[in-house]
Known about the structure:
This protein is an alpha+beta fold. About 25% of the residues lie in helices and about 35% in strands. The strands form 3 sheets. It has a 6-stranded antiparallel beta sheet with strand order 3-2-1-4-5-6. A 5-stranded mixed β-barrel has the order 7-12-13-14-17. The N and C termini lie far apart (about 55 Å).
Amino acid sequence: MMRLPETVHSDETLDRLKEIAGDSLAEAKRQGASAAEVGLNTSSGLSVNARLGDVETIEHTRDKGLGITVYFGKKKGSASTTDFTREAIAETVHAACVIARYTSEDECAGLADASLMATRFPDLDLIHPWPLTPERAIEIALEVENAARDFDPRITNSEGAGVSHHEGAYVYANSHDFVGGYASSQHGFNCAVIAQDDSGMQRDYWYSVARHADDLEASVKVGETAARRTVERLGSRKLSTRTVPVVYAAESARGLFHHFVSAIRGSSLYREASFLLDHLGKRVFPEGFHIREEPHLRRGLGSAAFDNEGVATQARDVIRDGVLEGYVLDAYSARKLGMQTTGNAGGVHNLVVDPDDVSFEDLLKEMNTGLLVTELMGMGINIVTGDYSRGACGFWVENGEIQFPVEEITVAGNLRDMYLGIRRVANDVDPRGNVRTGSVMVEQMTVAGD
């Protein structure tokens, strides 16, 4: 039997990381820093990929790292290492101190306020070890791929199927006497196949990801879904240029809200590089639209009790009744803007777009005639202006029913108009990420083709 990597999620591991964090802060103080913060992580994992019935790769991973930032008043320096010995940590702290001493002062530099540090650490159910042997991982990968290849005779080739599991531990500490840490896990299946008929060849994929292996879709279902999506794309056509309603399938709609987060992120705002600059308290989405941050969802892929600066996370409305209620700020960007951090150092934590009481099928019926987007390509987004243009493929819809697949088209508009033009969010919410949304219908967009 192949040897498994050691797990790294135990309480002993967290205690050891906290001890190293304390030693690092003490060393920073000894070397003259007025304040310091340190983040440590360690992880292990297994990844197996199979293609056309054979094993292509088996990868065991182990990783660890320490990053420390020191402050001499308003001067800041950072350094990192993968060596946790006392000597290496002392050298890393010294390197950070040297950088800080030669860096210009920045009035906004410094730790987040001590009063904002997390004091409660609820059990978010993030760690679920999976005793997966390489042999069993190979079996599952082959199950996934075989289910796809056997689904339809038009599946003629495969890009492979994969199985992965990952476990890790993270600790953050700073000289406010804050120290926090947690262990987490993430497991997944994926598959991509190729179909061919007289019209040509098409490729599509599917995947499942979760904190707990029991929450993953069945291996056979992942393979069959990848195959079904691929076969459905056979016979794809181009479209003439037109202006029509567009439905973003849930797996594609997530990107719309990633762009929104980019536009309200502190770094974009203080640089005046966002089309949503000075929009706090203004309508950004339609009346009744609601987006909230839920950092304490059990088993959530973005859940955390504190952010990367130790600030307590909390549930909040980002959009209420279509109005922008809050930005996405860390301590530095908050100071630049004369505001307070929102606990988002490192990003958002489970951004949830509240759906309407409508199914995906009913959403298509409501659209009647228009484009269903299932995949997007390219990154033609300008956050400064809001201009949006991306390559797309999907399906043409008439009378609320899918008519034929389409490809080699571009969907274009301006994010400001697109957000205000959202008419419905279906209840087919996709939980596979840090942004949770169902399929989204936008009232009008330009679809460019022939």
